[in-house]
Amino acid sequence: MRALFLALAVVISLVPLWPVYQTPAFIVAVVVGGVLGALIAVVSARRSWSVLATVLATVGAYLLVGVPIAIPSQALLGILPTLQGELSLITAVVLSWKQLVTVMPPVGSYEALLVPVFILSLCGVVLATVLSLRLPRNRARSNWAAVVPLLTLGISIWLGPSRSFASIVVTVGVFVLIALWFAAGRSTNTRAGFRSLGVVVLAAVVASAIVVVVPITNRSVWRTEIEQPFVLQDDTSPLSEYRNYVTGDQQSAELLTVTGLEAGQRLSLATLDNYTGVLYSVGGVAADFTKIPGSLPVDSSSGQKVSAEITIDQLTGPWVPLPGALGSLSFTGSNARSLTDSFYYSRPSQTGALITGLVAGDSYTTVAHEGEMLNVDALASLTPGDAIVPAPAVIPDGLDAFVATTAKGKTSAGERLQASLTALMTEGYISHGGPGEVPSASGHGANRIAALFAATPMVGDAEQYSTAAALIATQLGFPARVVMGFIAPEGSSAQSALTFTGADMTAWIEVSTSQGWVAINTNPAERPIPDEQPQDPTEVAFPQTAADPPAQEEPQLNDSASAEATQEEQPNTVDPVLQTVLAIVSGVAWTLLWLVILALPLLSIVFFKRRRRNRRFKAATSQEQVLGAWDELRDVLVDNGTTAPESHTRREIAQETGIHAATVVAVLADTAQYSGEKVSESEVLRAWADVDQLSDEIARKRTRWQRFQARISLRSLNIPWARLSSWLPQRR
């Protein structure tokens, strides 16, 4: 029964992994692994198996039940192992640990990601229980069994999420079970008992260190330290290829076919939030691509649920079109598994990508939640959100003046955004620069956007207008980004298949508001473009001609907005020296706290003995004071290992010590009790002085460790260890 404490400690130490899984399969894997481990350890102990036999039994149990428990997706009928499952189970012993920290949590029972927790539970319980049962209980090396749950606790936290989950509660729970395991040993050897106590103190220090190294808030774990294998931050922006879609070789090419979109619903190719002055690309937090476990929890209130089936034709590249915030995605076809392995997703930007890239014939089904798309007329009530996007590296010439002029007189941020975007759509005209169209240069760099604002009339297409609109929103305090993709035309229905060509490619913007991200289509309506108006020679560039509006009505433009965005983007840095000092101070403080907690029982014993001595010394009568001196002397002898049977007289006990002071106190006590004469104050003081003398003589003959043992001994309190631990399970 004693080993049960360590087995439970191992199981509890795996609790920090719950946020990574968040599935009942996690509980099953932990419980089954723990039960199997305990059974193997008990049989190994009773039949005196060798180390090799115990290891082989553990490996056999792992292979026998590992597939249905740790890789249920590859189990036949959910309970029988398969050849593919066994192969995955073997390779997962090495590969699953890194895969676990590269997949976006919660991972559920995705592929073989339950293998790490199953191994920790099975092997941890086997090792802890075998060491507890097989090693001699009264030897120091048996105490190393208590290290096993501490190791599993450390591994669990290291594999866990960056945000702690009940770290202190779990750590204390593990420590309490370890302490109970030590207490259940009930060693009669005092030295062995104190050695066990030392190991408990070591366990407390290690537990405290784990809590210190892994703080309550965000922490540095393997998941945050590992370099993600897929980064698209430096990839070419798909927006730079916009003209090739709408006027180039892919204008009439069938890019993909989708079923499940209603009229007006969107299919996003990529979300771009980093403007370098040359192009819009994926950057900042949007570049955080990780693997997903097939499905993700999505707030149902975040938008309309869309279920779509998509088949790729001539659309190539890494970007995977999605109809909104991804809830689940399943590739179909013969290469579904390889596509699943190479798919990565950026939750901040709601963008999917493939390492291998899309090819004709790839298909998948997806469930997503599409965010709201607002009309420009509905923007007045919006307030800026707190999303973080990289600050634009360059603000095109003319944009500041355009914002100042169009938003003049507007008070709220939403009204200014509405006014500026309305002006952009009213003054802008659509032209792709194709044959028979008004000339319109491609690109969305700072020079092209500056030319857009300088032209009369403004001429461009979705590439320029989405870029300009996103920069305008940023200048007005709204974090913004550009989204490139498709919008289902009027007449579309979820039951019909819709084929998109290159000419259908478009772009819009998303702005962060206090209610979340909202989409805005800022492309002007297609209409005839008037002739170019001659430039007024009295006018110069926008930045010089814009009238200075009243200070209270003006939006914060380029410098301040960029500064605020930069401050949001850059986290507060901490002096590394100060951080190290604080970590050391915190570690020392936690360690001292644990030591004080552990020392409380010992301090209580010392305090009680001191209080007992004072009560005897300050008794009501001199007779009681002398008798109290003898009682104190007798307790000193008992705590130092001298036997003092109740059947012996005071003088007999004193003579056995061989110390004259003991005999003097015994005579004074007998006189005070039996003579009936009043004891003088000088005799009381002499009796207590002899007690102190006897204590000093005994102390000089003993080592420092023996003196410490005597101070905390319970023998004089008449509370033997056997009585104290009688409630513990009895050894059979």
Provide an overview of this structure.
Helix content is 47%, strand content 13%. The protein has 732 residues and is of the alpha+beta class. The strands form five sheets. The protein has a five-stranded antiparallel β-sheet. Helix 1 runs parallel beside helix 7 and helix 4 packs across helix 5. The protein is elongated, with a radius of gyration of 39 Å. It starts with a helix and ends in an 8-residue tail after the last helix.
What attributes does this structure have?
5-stranded antiparallel beta sheet, single chain, 732 residues, alpha+beta, 5-stranded mixed beta sheet
Going across the biggest sheet, name each strand in turn.
Answer: 7-10-5-1-15
- Straight-line N-to-C gap: 9 Å
Using the CA coordinates, give the radius of gyration. Answer: 39 Å
Determine the strand fraction and express it as a percent band: 5-15%
| Average pLDDT taken over every residue | 79
Shape: elongated
Main β sheet profile? 5 strands, antiparallel
- The number of E-state strands comes to 17
Uncertain residue segments: 536-574, 720-732
Helix residue percentage: 40-55%
Alpha plus pi helix count: 25
Query: What is the SS-derived class?
Result: alpha+beta
